[in-house]
Amino acid sequence: MHHGDRRLGAAARCARRAGVSERSLRCYGREDLLSAERPPGGHREYTSAAVDRVRRIQELYAAGLCGSKIAKLLPCMRDSAGGPSETADTLLVSELTVERDRIDRVIGDLRRSRTLLDAVITAASRTAPSRTADPIRQTP
User: Sorted alphabetically, which keywords does the UniProt record give (predicted)?
Assistant: First the structure.
């Protein structure tokens, strides 16, 4: 346990605070993304830092990174003072650059889709009569 980390205790408490299932915590442990202490009782115990780490893992998965890439990336994300670490090697930097470029393309695609939806919504709002029924439940 790092200096300054508060012990949270049981997996259920950590999972609840991080907004994930206990199963996710176990999965992250198997993938070497998250570690827990095992006192004599054998149950996993987590520190308060685990909640932030789980949230970071969730963000990276949501961005489309795979577990093995996340495992390589996590040690490079924060140093002991909380700032970015400089431990990434040139191969990881190259891989992360590819990931960042992919994410930028996805963001661009999403912005274009949103612009198209806005245009359709605006056009339909001007011409369509007001409906009170749920359009999904209407039959053709």
Answer: DNA-binding
Cβ-based neighbours of 65, under 8 Å, separated by 6 or more = 73, 99
Q: pLDDT category, 7, cuts 50, 70, 90?
A: low
State if pTM tops 0.85.
Answer: no
Residue 38 DSSP one-character state: -
CB 64 within 8 A of CB 55: no
Rounded distance between C-alpha atoms, residue 88 and residue 91, angstroms: 8
Q: Which whole-number Å values give the CA distances from 54 to 65, 114, 118, in the listed order?
A: 14, 30, 35
Q: Locate tokens 């431990």: which residue? A: 87
- Residue 112 in 3-state DSSP? helix
**Candidate CATH numbers 3.40.50.720, 1.10.10.10, 2.60.40.10, 1.10.1660.10; the one for domain 1-64:** 1.10.1660.10
- At 136, the pLDDT band (50, 70, 90 cuts) reads low
